[in-house]
Amino acid sequence: MSKNRVTRRQFLNYTLTGVGGFMAAGMLLPMVRFAVDPVLQKKGESDFIATNQKVADLTTEPTRVDYSFEQQDGWYSSEETGTAWVYKDENDKVVALSPVCKHLGCTVNWNGDKANENHFYCPCHGGLYTKDGTNVPGTPPIAALDVFPTKEVDGFLHLGKAEPR
Amino acid sequence: MKWHTQDIQLFLKERDYIDTVILPLYPVSFADDIQQTVAMTEFINLLSGQLEKQFKGRILMLPGMSYLKTISEEKRLADLIEWEKELISQDFKHIFYITSDSDWKTVEEQLDGGLIWMPSIPLDNMDDQYKLSILEDQVKQLLNVFVKKWQNND
Ligand code: FES
């Protein structure tokens, strides 16, 4: 009878290994998930965000389009807002530019400076971009404005994730 | 730049370009005016978020100073002047305070930094798109204030 009984030492060994194992698993699993998660997330279609802008109302003059979307940031979601400068080019193709200055990230404005008409102007350090988003040499920005992929759904403009050119 | 680790990295690297600092002032009260102070805090919080977006590359948006309304005005002013001294010693060329609390207007002259007082707009029952356009309007007005100040000093 006493032979089958678990000794104090064995008991402690078992329990400690067990608990240790759980703790290790608890630490490792989230790490594995971190590593694998981005692969599992689906990309594409769902990344497009609807705006209130009718595509038919767009002209060759860049207009400001504001949109808002739900952003999941860690464990709480917040209402995020974004902006795009949108116009139709000579071929009637919709162009949507990110307003984020490629210098240090201020918001650029179309015709924001009276001395530089038909340009995007950054009020922070005088960055300039031509209408197609190309940075004007001699001003602080070192790259062209990012471009949003666009599509039209039921007449409304949808924007994807802005990408560098 | 926000008071976030990533932004501050950039701030430290590009310090010469970021010559302006903004400190939001948030009143807190538990008396009859509790709702008012909440609305003011909420509004200025949203507004300073939008403002930071507009001017990210040239301003540092501080996390804001909360203060109790039960504390005397002299004491509050003294506290703010402590902040101001520190900000001046950090070589910021332009210092701004932004608030909805009109108490600060009476002490404006005693401050070196500029006081931007914006009456709080009740935004809680508005739909997001509308809320956004109101905030954009306010930011547009402020854009001129900042650009003028920068031009005068450059
Ligand atoms: S952030 Fe636009 S020019 Fe510096």
TrEMBL record, chain A:
Q: Where are the transmembrane segments?
A: 12-32
* Keywords for the protein's UniProt record, in alphabetical order: 2Fe-2S, Disulfide bond, Electron transport, Iron, Iron-sulfur, Membrane, Metal-binding, Oxidoreductase, Transmembrane, Transmembrane helix, Transport
Taxonomically, the superkingdom here is: Bacteria
| Residues of the Rieske domain | 86-159
The record lists the organism as: Cytobacillus kochii
Q: How does it assemble?
A: The main subunits of the menaquinol:cytochrome c complex are a Rieske-type iron-sulfur protein (QcrA), a cytochrome b (QcrB) and a cytochrome c (QcrC).
**Family per similarity comment:** Belongs to the Rieske iron-sulfur protein family.
PANTHER family annotated for this entry? CYTOCHROME B-C1 COMPLEX SUBUNIT RIESKE, MITOCHONDRIAL
Q: List the protein's name.
A: Menaquinol:cytochrome c reductase iron-sulfur subunit
Q: What does this protein do?
A: Component of the menaquinol:cytochrome c reductase complex. The Rieske protein is a high potential 2Fe-2S protein.
Gene Ontology molecular-function annotations: 2 iron, 2 sulfur cluster binding; metal ion binding; monooxygenase activity; oxidoreductase activity, acting on paired donors, with incorporation or reduction of molecular oxygen
